[in-house]
Amino acid sequence: MKVLVIGPGGREHAIVRSLLADPNVSEVHAAPGNAGISKLVPTHAIDGNDPDSVAALATKLGVDLVVVGPEAPLAAGVADAVRAAGIPVFGPSKAAAQLEASKAFAKQVMAEAGVPTAMARVASNAEEAADALDTFGAPYVVKDDGLAAGKGVVVTNNRDEALAHAQSCFDVGGSVVIEEFLDGPEVSVFVLCDGRNTVALSPAQDFKRIFDNDEGPNTGGMGAYTPLEWAPEGMVQEVIDRVAQPTVNEMARRGTPFVGVLFVGLALTSRGTRVIEFNVRFGDPETQAVLARLRTPLGSLLMAAAKGELDKAEELRWSKDTAVAVVVASENYPDTPRTGDRIRGLKKVDELDGVHVIHAGTKLDDEGKVVSAGGRVLAVVALGTDLVEARERAYDGVELVQLEGGQFRTDIGRKAARGEIKVSSSATGSLPVTKTKA
Ligand code: AMP
Ligand code: GLY
């Protein structure tokens, strides 16, 4: 099987790495890729967000499967163009990608499908925003309705700050979704979907804020670990039964079947499990950790999803190890990241036992040296027999990375390793139905 992977980031590097370990995969290509990906497979300098360019490249290469990594190409209709060219694709259509591209659309689908989520209101002007903020009270949650690379959400106790964020979205012609605040630990569950069937991967936890102890602004994600020893039994089954399968059924009923990864961002709140958000692609950096443990050949699995045959796929097999991914970001991320700096020490990281580097915002300069080219530069991924060992190994690796101004969190997986994560007893098993359809 010949596969083309679309995207420039860490998630795509992790996907390429896993595809290369699948005995059924004979050849992998990537576009546009990054410095790490280009060391593994041929890369193609096309605009990965342009549907026609991707379909043309896939046709020229004669690939059997296209895997689309990020949300932007999906929202732009890349999967539709590839499907129209007669090539199986892992990734939802433009219409189905609205589950991520519009938070208001996602809320509608959740309501129709009876999926438990935060109460929410859409606001398009200051008056509506103020009214919604006062309805739900503090802490205030204000979300840009459109795609914002994980950075369009403000959670604050300061009403003026909440209003200012809403206003900044209105100023550029947008709208916002204002929600009730959800307490409790957050979990990411990736559910493979083939339009009808659903298969959940092992859950992970992501760290969204830039600084230790969840301080500072939101980022795309500064680290992750998996599996979650502390997660309530039955959590994944509940996600399938109450969230993923009803959503996939609803999308099929609407005539816009969902094929790809439904990324369910959950909060295990004191009032039960609630969906915080849907994304329509693998999470980054969770994928770097999750795929490090997956033993089932990835290419065959993604092909089964693309062809509507997940019901025939083999049961997933996982390493017993725990995986941790720690992101190294550039100076000034998530604001205006500094780029173009040499990155040294990566070979030494790869030599460590159970540790590897996944590139994100990197490129090769004119001399063929690896330099930073984005906000999140790379992730050090480590496997260990438990979370304590995996963390130690990951941070041993991070210490070897030399990047001027580089920043990383020192507490990825720390609370879980110390047994400090508490889940309320009502967090699962007592889901209220938000709305049922006759
Ligand atoms: P989103 O882009 O919707 O995933 O939001 C980004 C982050 O904001 C989430 O991972 C949460 O940490 C936080 N967040 C979003 N919605 C809520 C909510 N209703 N209550 C509490 N925190 C939230
Ligand atoms: N790590 C969260 C995301 O990919 O959106």
Can you characterise this structure?
The chain is of the alpha+beta class. Among the domains are: 2-91, Rossmann fold (3-Layer(aba) Sandwich), CATH 3.40.50; 121-179, ATP-grasp fold, A domain (Dna Ligase, domain 1), CATH 3.30.1490; 320-420, Glycinamide Ribonucleotide Synthetase, Chain A, domain 4 (Alpha-Beta Complex), CATH 3.90.600.10. Helix content is 32%, strand content 25%. A five-stranded antiparallel beta sheet has the order 11-14-17-22-19. The protein is globular and about 55 Å long. The protein starts with a strand and ends in a 21-residue tail after the last helix. Bound molecules: adenosine monophosphate and glycine. The site of adenosine monophosphate has 15 residues, from strand 6, strand 7 and strand 16. Residues 118, 141, 143, 150, 153, 155, 179, 181-182, 186, 208, 218, 265, 276-277 line the site of adenosine monophosphate.
Please report the total strand number as a whole number: 23
Based on secondary structure, the structural category is: alpha+beta
What fold name goes in the CATH topology slot of the domain at 320-420? Glycinamide Ribonucleotide Synthetase, Chain A, domain 4
Number of helices: 15
Distance between the termini: 44 Å
Q: Mind telling me the CATH superfamily name of the domain at 320-420?
A: Phosphoribosylglycinamide synthetase, C-terminal domain
Poorly predicted parts: 430-438
Gross morphology: globular
How much β-strand is present in the residues?
Answer: 25-35%
Q: Can you summarize the main beta sheet? A: 5 strands, antiparallel
Radius of gyration, rounded? 21 Å
Calculate the mean pLDDT score and round it.
Answer: 94
CATH class of the domain at 320-420: Alpha Beta
The unique ligands bound to this protein are: adenosine monophosphate, glycine
User: From the coordinates shown, what is the CATH architecture of the domain at 320-420?
Assistant: Alpha-Beta Complex
